[in-house]
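Blinded run. Sample ID left blank on purpose so nobody reads anything into the name before looking at the predicted structure. Input follows.
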Amino acid sequence: MIFSNLLIQWYLQNKRDLPWRNTTDPYPIWLSEIMLQQTRVAQGMPYFLSFTTAFPTVFDLAKANEEQVLKLWQGLGYYSRARNLHKTAQHIAQELSGIFPGNYNDLLKLKGVGEYTAAAIASFSYKEPVPVVDGNVFRVLSRYFDVDTDIAQASAKKEFAALAFELMPKDNPATFNQAIMEFGALQCVPKSPNCGICVFNESCAALQKNKVNQLPVKSKKLKVRNRYFNYMVVADENDNTIIQKRTDKGIWHNLYEFPLIETEKEEDFDCVSEAVQAEYFKDNTVVSMLEYNEKSIIHKLSHQHLHIKFWKVKVKGTIENGIDGETLRTFPFPIVIHNFIEKDL
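Blinded prediction complete.
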């Protein structure tokens, strides 16, 4: 079909040289696909290179401990991806002798691997004709064919996958899948695409109907929750501090943080200082306390906005399980805490 031929021709002339595109080995392809979920290529690339250097094979990744994996992942966000990545590597190394499942349906059974990732690995590694459907694919197809299906609906993925499958040359699924994603990433971008230089500008339905900025249709808005975090950065007489592991399910699971007092709203010094002595330092008298940042740092996650304050708390004596600054820097932290440690401690 004209669409597929033009698309692949565009791709071969414009594609970026990315390391995971120069192989059919499922391990680096899987790594890159997990890393690039919710992440731009420019941001994900250094992490991919760090991981493949530290863990050249799935066996190396399986042998690592979780904290090593989380430390290397630090700053990439959506940390459940890293935990699932590690568990899946262990499953492949220990249960499957290091061999990835060889088809879409079996790949789907792996922890952390959804329809999109399974389709990417199956088509790129095994040439299985299964279409990938991500935000780029929704955008390109909805605009080119003027499809106004709400992509927030559960049924939308099936509809777009069927359309992509119909367009896909069955003897070359890998190039088609790479091409449509790359076209959405580089040319048919979400805002103000340059339609004047587009290879489809004579046949794109959205362009003919002046609907480019209206497609794809997505109705569901995520409700954002505000949370207020007060971190106690303790220093005892030896200048040691304390941290704790976030073991609850939810954000930053298994990462480390300073002792935390979460409040309903942004609180002042009096309220926080009262809570500090009551909740944390019954065994050590608080000598002094002051704000590192008078204005809250707002750390935006997809579904939560965290309003973060760091408080310097000096205590008498020595704290139990205290650690020094050098040891502190070896632990995996959420990026907002890591940045604070590097800048202010």
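Unblinding after everyone has recorded impressions. The longest strand covers residues 304-315.
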